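User: Structure with glutamine, tokens only please.
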Amino acid sequence: MAKEGHPKGLYLLFVTEMAERFSYYGMRAVFTLYMVAALFTMESASEIYGYYTGLVYLTPLLGGYIADRYWGNRRSIIVGGMLMAFGQFLMFLSASFVQPAIKEAEGMIDPTVNNQLAIICMMGGLFFLILGNGFFKPNISTMVGSLYRPDDQRKDSAFTIFYMGINVGATLGPLTCGIFEGDYLNPMRFKWAFLCACIAMLASTLIFYLLKNKYLMDYEGNAIGTKPKLQEKTERQQLTRKEKQHIVVIFIIAAFVIFFWAAYEQAGVSLTYFADQQTDRHIFGWEMPTSYFQSFPAIFVVLLAPFMNLVWEVLRRFGHEPSSVMKQAIGLAFLSIGYMLIAFGVKDLGPNVKVSMLWLTGLYFIHTLGELSLSPIGLSLVSKLSPKHLASLMMGIWFMSTAISWQDN
Ligand code: GLN
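Assistant:
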């Protein structure tokens, strides 16, 4: 069963998702900075950001349902990709219309500036990004699983490779879009960041559109992700007892991983605050920007994913590979070890003392070991347990745990 290598389709999905995540994380890296520079107070900006992130991970439920029932994965991905490209384009327009709200000379709010149009474009942009992600995100993940026979042992490794694609994008997006960071005197500069995100999204959709027919097929050579057939639709009515049990397992695991995402997503909030206020960011006389810390987890994923794959592979050879559910628990354990480390680091810290950045780097390193044990394996598990005709909806349930985790923040 354990054939060597992976189907070529995996690499098409890898590249498609890499470009999409480049776009997503690139936009995300500058989004709050943009809002604060010209449009909103920090408090409102954080709130909008929270709603955006929560909703972006909620709509996959809808996108998954529509794909399983009507459209199939392929069409959903293309529609979602186009909606997101349009969303990024509206962000670009927003930052093209924006005017500095502060007068340079006096440093005062300029009452004559009206950024209403920029706000409308931004809200429209967010709407299309949220909707588009719903169609794109669950379906691309489902397709990874469909490349393999349901019981194929390569699935965990396939999802780990796919996850590397996600994080190559998540590393490069912020580094590229971040070049075009503006500020309150020059908020228009952000438009180039959004344009980069828009171009990456168009590229992702185009690559997928052009190559899908050539590479996306199952182990028997049948096209995957096409419209659900009538027969499959009628099968939908009867779930076997075993299928029902599997669905319950997915719900239980999704409920547990909410804790992982809630703590993990602190990277953008409290851990950034920690990086800013309580971490000495000097390396050989150079002060590293606070925001650079946010690319650490993605970089670690890329570096550590092959290592983790090797660990599972070696354990498998010796017959000791943990079960997928066990890997979720290991992921949660790493998460708490990471926080224990940082708690130890700040234990006796006075208010004006800064700790070495090795603490935060260590935290992200340990969290990434947890992430790699939990997130790609979780996708793989959902793929293995889902009844075929509900696979994308079940992926939506998995992502919903991130949406719910935002309600805790
Ligand atoms: N970092 C991963 C991604 O961007 C996982 C996100 C999630 O499941 N919350 O796809």
